[in-house]
């Protein structure tokens, strides 16, 4: 399988094509030190054989930011080094930190913007990225990643809505690219050319006036020219459209751009892969072969394999899917795809991040701080006689599916559905024995079945199937039948 093939990134031998991109865990204290919980979280990804682990955004300066890792002083090196040792002792996974600089923001709704930075402030950002990169190398990371995405300082310079009007200004592309160019030079000065330096940036900003893939192709080309060793693409996550809840700082993922960044269950899978493919094709055509990686609802192994084997991307970044099941890669390798805990994109993790609560997955057993350990001998739940007592009834304009509790240790249930006898897909995962389908249309036929899963994704055989043909007596207009050709 293409996804299990290794890839070498500036000397860093990544054992497969799957990356877990940065995901803040909110498991650190405000002091920014690595805690046991944080270390365990990343060691868990290594145990699950994830090719490249990007450790959550860590601050390169002393700005306040709630619970967030820090790498702005040498005293943080020993904790990071200890975590890296454990990761490397666990598997061949490679590990890089995401280095972040962000601007000030207050609960009043005020926020610092890039036009408020003096030349000295900018010089300081450049210097601090270099110094943090050197600390990362000393701490035993295999490389680093620069956070040039979302609402943070570097991305705010590259943005099309950068409000500066000087040589770093938003009115020219070269102006927008100046800071990242200086940062790359500083980083190389500190870590040399033989240390992998990846850059995360946006393939689309998804805010009014923000840049689209057209700029992203040129930005990617410049990053390649600057000697970036990989490009990891995200989208959106901006403060320009973030909501302000009085008494709280704006959360960069609360507006539409934030929804695009961490798309919920109602968005299609792999929705941004085509942007990555376009950027990769553009850069490759200019003679640069820097690996291009993208994220965004790609946790179905068939989709991941298609995107990679067709050469659309060089690696796939899976965030929430690997949070749900850090053993994703291992299970693919062992042909246990059926046993993967499948993310249902409910975004409970996103909400926890937004409220600075420890990030976990809704599908884990209640109260778990980490994903349950891989259990090769785990027994799937089952219904006696194979009968789950599945039923479906109409309640107003919804279908209500319910079933009985199985034997064994069920933790959650995957709901499978077809529309008009089409393709079967998992439409949700729940922890109770009832599910309401609000997405039914009168005149169509739905079939449902459920599978009960234990903590590590061992799924029962499918329950019996029920058929539902909703009616809508108060349906507002006539329904025309399709033309017979
Ligand atoms: C809880 C949470 C925390 C995140 N933290 C970061 C972060 O620190 N840095 C970053 O670049 N992206 C962050 N992201 C975005 C993810 O890396 C990823 O781009 C996004 O979730 C889409 O990928 P997915 O559909 O595979 O989840 C975070 C996402 C989540 C859900």
Could you please describe the fold and organization of this structure?
The protein has 485 residues and is α/β, with parallel strands linked by helices. It has twelve helices and 18 strands. α3 (119-138) packs parallel to α5. The protein starts with 6 loop residues before the first strand and ends in a 17-residue tail after the last strand. Bound molecules: flavin mononucleotide. The site of flavin mononucleotide has 24 residues, from β4, α10 and α12. Flavin mononucleotide is lined by residues 21-24, 56-57, 98, 147, 149, 200, 234, 261-262, 295-297, 318-321, 349-350, 353, 359.
The coarse overall form would be globular
Please give the largest β-sheet.
8 strands, parallel, barrel
The oligomerization state is single chain
Query: What is the CATH level 1 assignment of the largest domain?
Result: Alpha Beta
Give the count of structural domains. Answer: 2
Rounded mean pLDDT score: 96
Which terms summarize this structure?
19% strand, TIM Barrel, 4-stranded antiparallel β-sheet, Immunoglobulin-like, alpha/beta, 485 residues, 12 helices, binds flavin mononucleotide, 8-stranded parallel beta barrel
In short:
The chain has 485 residues and is α/β, with parallel strands linked by helices.
Topology:
Elements: E1 7-9, E2 12-14, E3 18-20, H1 36-47, E4 52-59, E5 69-70, H2 77-90, E6 94-100, H3 119-138, E7 144-148, H4 153-158, H5 173-191, E8 197-204, H6 213-225, E9 230-235, H7 256-261, H8 273-285, E10 292-294, H9 301-309, E11 315-317, H10 320-324, H11 328-333, H12 348-354, E12 391-395, E13 398-402, E14 412-419, E15 425-430, E16 434-437, E17 446-453, E18 466-468
Parallel strand pairs: 3-4, 3-11, 4-5, 4-6, 6-7, 7-8, 8-9, 9-10, 10-11
Antiparallel strand pairs: 1-2, 12-13, 13-16, 14-15, 14-17, 17-18
Helix pairs in contact: 1-2, 3-5, 5-6, 6-8
Bound molecules: flavin mononucleotide.
Residues 21-24, 56-57, 98, 147, 149, 200, 234, 261-262, 295-297, 318-321, 349-350, 353, 359 line the site of flavin mononucleotide.
């Amino acid at each position: 399988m293409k996804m299990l093939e290794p890839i070498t990134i500036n000397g860093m031998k990544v054992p497969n094509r799957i990356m877990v991109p940065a995901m803040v865990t909110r498991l650190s204290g405000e002091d920014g030190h690595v805690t046991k919980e944080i270390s365990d979280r990343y060691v868990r990804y290594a145990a699950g054989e994830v090719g490249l682990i990007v450790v959550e955004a860590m601050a390169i300066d002393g700005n306040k930011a709630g619970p967030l890792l820090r790498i702005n002083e040498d005293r943080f090196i020993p904790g990071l080094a200890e975590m890296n040792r454990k990761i490397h002792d666990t598997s061949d996974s490679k590990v890089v930190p995401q280095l972040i600089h962000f601007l000030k923001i207050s609960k009043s709704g005020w926020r610092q913007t890039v036009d408020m930075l003096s030349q000295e402030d900018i010089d300081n950002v450049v210097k601090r990225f270099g110094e943090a990169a050197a600390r990362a190398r000393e701490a035993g990371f295999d490389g680093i990643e620069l956070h040039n995405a979302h609402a943070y300082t570097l991305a705010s310079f590259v943005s099309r809505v950068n409000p500066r009007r000087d040589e770093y200004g938003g009115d020219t592309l070269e102006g927008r690219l100046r800071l990242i160019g200086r940062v790359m030079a500083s980083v190389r000065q500190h870590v040399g050319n033989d240390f992998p330096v990846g850059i995360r940036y946006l393939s689309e900003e998804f805010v009014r006036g923000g840049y689209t893939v057209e700029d992203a192709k040129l930005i990617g080309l410049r990053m390649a020219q600057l000697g970036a060793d990989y490009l990891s693409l995200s989208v959106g996550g901006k403060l320009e459209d973030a909501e302000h809840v009085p008494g709280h700082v704006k959360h960069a993922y609360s507006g539409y751009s934030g929804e695009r960044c961490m798309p919920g269950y109602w968005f299609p899978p792999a929705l941004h892969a085509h942007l990555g493919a376009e950027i990769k094709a553009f850069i490759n055509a200019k003679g640069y072969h820097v690996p291009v990686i993208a994220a965004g609802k790609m946790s179905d192994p068939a989709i991941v394999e298609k995107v990679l084997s067709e050469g659309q991307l060089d690696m796939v970044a899976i965030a929430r899917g690997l949070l749900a099941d850090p053993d994703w890669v291992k299970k693919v390798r062992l042909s246990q795809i059926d046993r993967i805990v499948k993310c249902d994109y409910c975004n409970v993790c996103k909400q926890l991040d937004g409220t600075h609560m420890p990030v976990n997955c809704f599908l884990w057993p209640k109260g778990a701080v980490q994903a349950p350990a891989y259990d090769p001998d785990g027994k799937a739940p089952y219904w006696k006689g194979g009968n789950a007592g599945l039923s479906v009834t109409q309640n107003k304009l919804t279908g209500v599916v319910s079933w009985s509790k199985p034997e064994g240790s069920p933790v959650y249930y995957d709901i499978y559905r077809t529309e008009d006898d089409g393709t079967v897909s998992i439409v949700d995962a729940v922890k109770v024995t009832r599910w309401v389908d609000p997405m039914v249309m009168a005149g169509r036929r739905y079939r449902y079945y459920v599978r009960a899963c234990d903590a590590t994704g061992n799924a029962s055989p499918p329950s019996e199937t029920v058929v539902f043909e909703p009616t809508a007596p108060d349906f507002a207009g006539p329904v025309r039948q399709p033309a017979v050709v």
